[in-house]
Amino acid sequence: MNSKIRHIRLLAFVTNLAILSFSAPVFAVDDGARAFWKAREGSTVLSFQFLNLNMQASGAEQFAPGLYIYPNSDAEANIVVASWVRHITLFDRASSFAVNLTGGSVQADIGASRPSDFLPPGATPNSEFSQSSSGYADPTVQLDINLFGTPRLKSNVDLFNYEPTWTVDAAVMLGVPMGEYDDDKLVNLGLNRWFTRIALPVKYHFGAFSPGYMGSFEITPSVWMFEDNDDFLGQTLENDPILQLEAHLTQDFTPTVFGSIDLLYRKGFESTIGGVEAGEELDIGDLGYTLNVTTTDNLTIRASFSSNVFGDNDVENSVIRMQFVYRWHEATENNKKLQHH
Amino acid sequence: MNIKGKNLFFKLALATMLTLTLTISTTQVNAQTQSRPNILLIVADDLGYSDLGSYGGEINTPVLDQLAQQGMRYTDFYVAATCSITRSMLMSGTDNHIAGLGNMSELNAPNQVGKPGYEGVLNKRVASVAELLQENGYHTYMAGKWHIGLKPDQIPHARGFERDFSALVGGGSHFDDGWNINWQIPMMPYTEDGRPVKKLPKDFYSTRAYTDKTIQFIEEGRKDNKPFFSYLAFTAPHGPLHLPDDWLRLYKNRYDEGWDGIRQKRLTRMQELDIIDKNANFADRLAFLPRSSGMVPAARVLQGRKMELYAGMVEYMDDQIGRVFDYLKEIGEYDNTVVIFISDNGAEGNDLRSMMAGQPGTMGYLHGMNNFAENNHNSIGRKGTYAEYGPAWAQVSMTPFRIYKGWVAEGGIRSPLIISGPGVKGAGGLNKKAVLHVTDIAPTVLELAGIEHPATYKGRDIEPMQGKSWVGMIEGDTESPRTADDWLGWELFGNRAIRQGDWKITWLYEPFGSEDWQLFNLATDPGEQQDLSNELPEKRQELIALWDEYVETNGVIIGDRSPFEQAGKQLPTRVLESDNYPPVRGLEAVPYEKLLELMNRQ
């Protein structure tokens, strides 16, 4: 191989170790495999995700953490998440900062028999009704910092020396209540309340840390916490925290393709409306898979599917996701300019 | 006395005589066994002159350093410029052009093919030292690289080794995947006790495997108290640079400072150890190599990673040699074992991968694609990769000499030599007087074993050995086996050299030579920097006459093709920047940390 091309590819690799750094967990999907992999300081990532979510709750359970949708309902959501991620160094550790903008539409068919207090205006007790919402959801910001296993990745020297085994991060996400919200509707894209997630992503890397050979086991315990929504059909909606466990087993198939088996389990989120308990707590376990293809030095395409296979039998959901990630670093791009000079 | 009584008397007398005879003969055999030492000949593959700690290297080699402390080191020991050439002389005690390796079998020139001395294998004009030892009561074991014959009558088992585990060629994977760099022999052919090895065990790693087999052979053969000759021919640290996973990062970042700094430190240590003289002329950095201080830190890290692997392989080998020594001590044989340690040629600075598998469209390239394409900086050292450390590090390994493997400059043919064991006088000493050659080892071993080299072997006439036994030297009787009139000669790939005393002439292809004879005084100029041809034309002419004698004596045929005939065009061009050119003003005003910070943006 031409040494110049090799050099470009090498720089591209080391500059862009982090493939993805965001997903849309607030819409009941996981962060994704290799979401917390690190890149060189100064790397920028733009990501666009298209999500199709289908949810059915036949019993009294609820789903869609963050959103409150009536139990005993079907819903479908089509969501787009745009993310901007910047890899930085904090306290001499590899870190990242992300801003996520979410929007789309959600349609729900609700068949629960509910006290009239919990019904939106126009809905008849003991009969089915439909609601939908579209527009922007609540934006989120996330700060992730490595605690162990990934020192600063400031220069190519740092990257060349980076061969992680165990890594532990701390990640804090904050949701800002700026999304579409109608207090007369059950179904909204915005939550009308602040929310946060605190996560502790842990990874174990195996195999040579070079494209085509990398593998990882990743497990991320996290907890979601929600402020009260004091304008929910004129009442106050309170939710218990969600305890979440996300895990991935990833393996490179080729230097540009990796696959992953994905697991997401969520529990908690018991709801109280106006002081009255509403619905049962979440107990959903999803299993899925992901295929990730790096098409150029800058562009990666990912497809994944997951569906709940354990947890409460009365709840079903499935998620189809397509994601496009474009990333760059000034030094890599400058090097390309030189090579093409 | 009746007949019956007479019979009894005779029987008793006969029994007594037989008992006495047996007792005496057993005593003699035991005495002979006791007086004949075991011989452990250890050969490293492509190890550089200054890699060992006892030769000034920074690589951790405590076992060999300890061996040097117990025995003697020699500064002027010569081998051939490549592997199989050396091995033919090592086994035969005579010049490679006689022993069948006038050229490497893979690289015979058209006009050499089919000519006597160019069979490409250890031919039948010589007897191997193992054959002679085996015939004279020694156990003969081999584990490691052979490289001087592939056919059933050419392999170690057929050439005197009663037990063997052998890689018949070199340059392939050190792991169980077993591919070879040469597509024409795509898989490394191994034999065990003369039979092909069909499958290597999953955890196979060459250096460990050869060590295991050496210990196994000695253990299984020691019941009869016969001495052994064990040839432990490591394939390390020859490329591909491979290491077990837990050794991969043993030297992490130890070579990030670049080759110039490491080389300078080696020079200093070599001077402290008196390996080299302070006022001697050392080789400049090769003209096409950049100074490492001018390289960005990231590039130094990438280049250093290769040297890290190399150093790891050397230390791993040292560690495994320690296992053999420990075993010999455990069975009480260490003190009766003469250990000889050498390398087979200079450190490897050629791009073997490119030479063998670097041209798209060739079978070699296809072979490389299928078996050793991976070369990421974090992958190298593992299965499926082929990394070499290149000319800059090879020159470090060959500090203070010039060039590297393949060339008959000092950098291609000088080797460390350590001898230790019973009868070796001058523990921890350094011999700088003796000019020694690999052909000397066979006669030395035979003399240690009390064997005279015969004129015939198994009914065929064999060539006499050209090497000179070192026994008088190692026992302290003489400083050198050679007189001032003795000389040594080399020829490989058309490059030529003669050394007599401190004087050496070389004829090298461009760009390393002028394609004419050059004259050097190695006493003051071991780096071969100053051609004295014009100043001392008569001396040059004297040595050229010796070259003619060398050709005549050994049947040298200069090849009409050479792998180095285009070296001047293939090697990178001279770098413009060097230590003092162009002169830089005011750079010292920029703190080094600031420079690093700037560079770290790269």
Main sheet record of chain B: 11 strands, mixed
Mean pLDDT of chain B: 92
Rough shape of chain B? globular
Tell me the distance between the termini of chain B: 109 Å
Structural class of chain A: mainly beta
Q: Helicity range of the residues of chain B?
A: 25-40%
Q: Which two protein chains have the largest interface (Cβ within 8 Å of the partner's Cβ), and how many residues from each?
A: A-B, 16 and 20 residues
Average pLDDT confidence of chain A is 84
Which range does the strand content of chain B fall in?
Answer: 5-15%
Describe this structure in a few short sentences:
Chain A is built from three helices and 18 strands.
Task: Note the main attributes of this structure.
heterodimer, A: 341 residues, mainly beta, 14-stranded antiparallel β-sheet, 4-stranded antiparallel β-sheet, 3 helices, 18 strands, 8% helix, elongated, B: 602 residues, alpha/beta, 11-stranded mixed β-sheet, 17 helices, disordered N terminus
Tell me what the structure shows.
The complex is a heterodimer of chains A (341) and B (602). In chain A, 8% of the residues lie in helices and 52% in strands. With 341 residues, chain A is mostly beta strands. In chain A, a hairpin with a 2-residue loop joins β14 and β15. Chain A is elongated. About 7% of the residues of chain A have low confidence. With 602 residues, chain B is α/β, with parallel strands linked by helices. In chain B, the strands form three sheets. In chain B, strands 1, 2, 3, 4, 5, 6, 7, 8, 9, 10 and 11 form an eleven-stranded mixed β-sheet that branches. In chain B, a hairpin with a 2-residue loop joins β15 and β16. In chain B, α6 packs parallel to α8 and α7 packs parallel to α11. Chain B starts with a helix and ends with a helix. The N terminus of chain B is likely disordered. At the A-B interface, α2 of A face α8 of B.
